[in-house]
Amino acid sequence: MSQIRLSDQAYAGIVEIIKSEDLEVGARLPSEAKLAETFGVSRAIVREALVRLASDGITEARRGAGSFVKSRPSERLAAFMPMSELSTTLGSYEVRFVLEAEAARLAATRRTAQEMAHVEEGMALLREALLSSEPAHAEDMDLHRRIAAATGNPAFIQAFDALWPDVEKIMRAGVDISRSRPPEVVETMLREHEVIVAAIRAQDPEGAALAMRWHLWEGRRRLMP
Amino acid sequence: MSQIRLSDQAYAGIVEIIKSEDLEVGARLPSEAKLAETFGVSRAIVREALVRLASDGITEARRGAGSFVKSRPSERLAAFMPMSELSTTLGSYEVRFVLEAEAARLAATRRTAQEMAHVEEGMALLREALLSSEPAHAEDMDLHRRIAAATGNPAFIQAFDALWPDVEKIMRAGVDISRSRPPEVVETMLREHEVIVAAIRAQDPEGAALAMRWHLWEGRRRLMP
DNA sequence: CGCAGTAAACCTGTCCAACAGGTTCAACCG
DNA sequence: CGGTTGAACCTGTTGGACAGGTTTACTGCG
């Protein structure tokens, strides 16, 4: 389903370099040619990754000089950072907190049988993806989107879709896709989603809203240890 | 300062094509080669733009098939809307209820002086427009948007912008422009907004959230008695 | 005439070699 | 010692090339 492009790996690889080599803000990255050689890909691929990194506000390229760290992925996640400097990506969690919690509540209140089946299907897909140790971002989003759809209110899907690209960015930046997740993390993520789905199935509005809030809170905590 | 790269122009150009040619979600974009020829740049530049477009959730590339519109930038769903028009538009109020109430709360909590001035300015513009007996939808939206901006969290503005086209539609549909509003309605709308702004000024989070909820509740009641 | 199968045309993903023009830094000259 | 210059290095961009997936249209068979 989600085909992995080399530039995705390069993106993750560069983020990994910034983190592992502990490059400070303003530090210079290896040149495009060196990165290409390191990852065993062409310079064009590295460039596509760098363009996205720059568009995500993580790096900055200066012609003739090189690419530089603009803000470290982990630091943008810091809770104490003033909101004015907070990236759109992290801020999106703040919106999801109220938006998706309300969606879960409404979904539990007035879901139809068909919508419930749709949610269950999304849960099954996520379970499968998580257990296969693949990066399950797409399936994760899909389940959340199905829950938003179960409110029967298209406006929720619209607001959700407007937010998701940013959520995805932070996921890509924060998660090392090269390393497989430990089993207990997979199980935790599964259980969190299952509790939400169960509450919607049982038509328990407060339970669904609480479970969703808890899941988002834990998710954000996972991204900034 | 910020040097303009060709890929930035290509990015803007592709967005322009989606808007001007009115490409629906799922529609296919011209091929990379054609886009390159159109913009007078190389295919690599177009690719860098497309990679960013995809990362922003606007397009989606399928190998061998082409690139497709995934969601239309900003004015999603603005022009053409499915049948369930009324329910969609009214449904947006449900989202605004949680979204804007939270925005008002956060704005009251952590607004800067500059953001507050921005909000006051929006209030002044709305007051002027309302007293001149013109339909003040644009000014109304503008004030709400400034409040969302005062959270310091760009994600709120994004979610807000995704919703607004629907809200505007129902406003236009529900209000009879030919008849001028009675003075007491104008005064009520002014007072509701002023209470919200005052609470944000006083840095009273709960008051701001409550006032916003009340305003939205009344607004919906005004539209469908 | 209808349909299945296949081949051609087209498309994205990736690589390579090359050049233009900006930046850095150290050696050299006054 | 200070300033200038030049070489080395870097990003920005190009054109061509090939692999492999998708779409389309045509061909030949039933």
3D architecture notes:
2 copies of one chain form a homodimer. The first copy, chain A, has 225 residues and is mainly alpha-helical. Chain A folds into 2 domains: 6-73, Orthogonal Bundle (Arc Repressor Mutant, subunit A); 83-223, Four Helix Bundle (Hemerythrin (Met), subunit A) (Up-down Bundle). Chain A is 67% helix and 4% strand. Chain A has helices at residues 6-20, 32-39, 43-55, 88-110, 113-131, 137-149, 154-174, 183-201, 205-223; strands spanning 59-62, 66-69. In chain A, strands 1-2 form a two-stranded antiparallel sheet. In chain A, a hairpin with a 3-residue loop joins strand 1 and strand 2. In chain A, helix 1 packs across helix 3 (43-55) and helix 8 runs antiparallel to helix 9 (205-223). The two termini of chain A are 30 Å apart. The model of chain A is unreliable at 74-88 (pLDDT under 50). Chains A, B: Pfam families: FCD (PF07729), GntR (PF00392). Chains A, B: GO terms for molecular function: DNA binding; DNA-binding transcription factor activity. Chains A, B: This is GntR family transcriptional regulator.
What level of helicity do the residues of chain A show? 55-70%
* Strand coverage percent of chain A: under 5%
How many domains, in number, for the residues of chain A? 2
- Output the structural class of chain A: mainly alpha
Number of helices of chain A: 9
Distance between the termini of chain A: 30 Å
Q: What is Rg of chain A?
A: 19 Å
Can you tell me the CATH architecture of the largest domain in chain A? Up-down Bundle
Low-confidence stretches of chain A: 74-88
The biggest beta sheet of chain A reads: 2 strands, antiparallel
The helix-strand sequence of chain A is HHHEEHHHHHH
The rough form of chain A would be described as elongated
